[in-house]
Design goal:
- The chain is an all-alpha fold.
- Helix content is 79%, strand content 0%.
- Helix 2 runs antiparallel to helix 10.
- The model has no long low-confidence stretch (mean pLDDT 83).
Length: 256
Amino acid sequence: IAGATLGLADLTLVLVVTFLAVGTAYLPSPRAKSICFSIPLPFSAALISSGQSVDATNAIGFLAIWAFVWIAWFLYTKKVWPILLAELAALLFYLMVSYVVPFYVDHDGLIESISFWSAWGVMIPLSLAMIVFLPAKLESGYKSPLPVLLKTLLIFMMVLFVILAKSHMRGFITSFPYVTIFAVYESRHSLYTVARRMPSFIIPFLPVLLFCRYLPEHVGFAGALVASWVCFIPMFILMDRFYTRRDNAILQSLAE
């Protein structure tokens, strides 16, 4: 990719995503896979790597990644597509959105502001609806049989390519489904569980977007990221415990 360069932050992002993606491959539990791809280390590293402020493309990017998971689930589970083909279709959708949206949403201005808050207006009620209306299902775990080194190399090359295209993707570089691509593939036997638990990631992440959007001018970029993590961690733990306690009772009754 012409003019592309790699800095320390870029290499850090590659290593962070590779580590988490490998984790999703070799952790058999659907809950563990969901937790692994929900950790916002890729977002933090990608935000530093991009050198860009948080804007509407970041928020819309999380809607697109949400759609990515559910498109893959629908095509694989309901339409019985091969998992790789289902993921490819979902990824093409994400790439189309990440390519088109930056042309119409500037870094600032009225359209950007409306787009940012509109994304919130979709994510919050959608998360609540998923929590209320999507029941737990008994699904099996899965652990990748591929050699660790081979899978690590494949992940490394994919992330490297995405980073080289970061200049146009803007906020989408932070929400690109780096880990999710591999989490969906490795969770194909429990994909509904991973998709259904996405509110446990999205809801705690909304304050992160706010902090990284408004705090840097007051406390600096590093301070905003620290405040984001301080907010995200307890909220994510509470959401995970909520899902786990509620689902355990339902899954036990289904197993009996």
